[in-house]
Each structure stands twice: as C-alpha cells, then as structure tokens.
Amino acid sequence: MSAARARRSGPAPGGRRSTGRPLTHAASRPVPAGSRSGAGSRPEARRPGRRPPRSTAAAGTPRRPLFTGRAVLLGGLVLLLALTLAGPVRQFLAGRAELTRLAAEGTALDRRIEDLQDQLERQGDPAFVAREARERLTYVLPGDRLLVVVDGDAVEGDAGTVPEPDDGGLPWYDALLQSVAEADGDEEPNE
C-alpha cells in the first residue's frame, strides 16, 4: 500500500514521474557521454520553417510495393469466384431466354386455338356449309341453274347434270394421246 501512496503523493525522486510501466528498449540503452545535455530534458519551442524536407529515399525507408500479398490473394479469390460463377450465370440467362421464347410460342398457340375454335363454330352453321359447298364444290340446290366457265366459254346445264364433251365421244385415254400428239406438233394419230 505504501507504493500506491507514493505514486499518488507526488513525483518520484529525481524529478520524474513513475508510470508503473516497465522501461522500453529505447530507454534502457546507454546514452553516449557527450550527447547528454540539459537541453534534451526540456522541450523548447520549435521554430517554424526550419524542418528539413521529408524524403523517403533520404530517410532510408524502403518503398512500399505496388501489390501486396494480400491484394494478390484477394484478386486471385475474386477471379476464382468469377470463373466459378460464370457457368451457372450463363445457364441462368439461357434458361430465361428459353422461357421467354416458350412464353411467346405459347401465346401464338393460344391465338391459333382461338382461331380454330372460331372456324369450328362457323362450320357448324348450316348457312356457312351451304355457301362453301356452292363456292368450292360447285354444288347446286334442286331448281338452281348451274353456270360453269370452261376455258373462257360459258357452258350452261341443268342442275345436277354435266354437259357432254364435244370431243367426238373418244375415250379419255385416246383424248389424252391426241392432246399429247397435238402438243408435239405431230400429225394426228390414226384411229
């Protein structure tokens, strides 16, 4: 307890205060005999502008390297992480593009379904069926007159009857051979 009171009571003998810490290595070095003077024990006012310019080369401190070991390690880890994630990110983007394409294809198919359902409803209408039979298949109802245009000549006939050809009653195969012979410029074949 007396040491604690001595610390609190005032400065230690010799004019220095004790901090209770052990001496550092700098304080334990011997001081050369000629360098000790009373000027070192008191701080003096510094004069501004008298300080020598700072230079790292003059002080002898080594230059700091551009890349430290930690920076190289961090850069390597970032590069490894980027290479590791490149494949999954590419697959993710390709999957999103595929989903977009499939969604557009699904929308087009939905429109096609609607069009086909409308067409199916139209074909269920008897008036539509009758009109298509008249236009596409040249069907006529009993009592209607049929007008067929063949090679620019209008030919009339009764409903449900087809006019007789004017080829002289030749069978179809003879008429075919005759037309081929006419196309070649040959004389007409003998019958």
TrEMBL record:
Bias-annotated ranges (Low complexity): 9-22, 54-63
Any matching Pfam family: DivIC
Coiled-coil stretches: none
Protein's UniProt name: Cell division protein FtsB
Taxonomic lineage from the root: Bacteria, Bacillati, Actinomycetota, Actinomycetes, Geodermatophilales
TM helices/strands, residue ranges: 71-89
Gene Ontology biological process terms from the UniProt entry: cell division
Superkingdom per UniProt: Bacteria
Disordered: annotated segments: 1-63
Keywords, comma-separated and alphabetical: Cell cycle, Cell division, Membrane, Transmembrane, Transmembrane helix
Species: Geodermatophilus sabuli
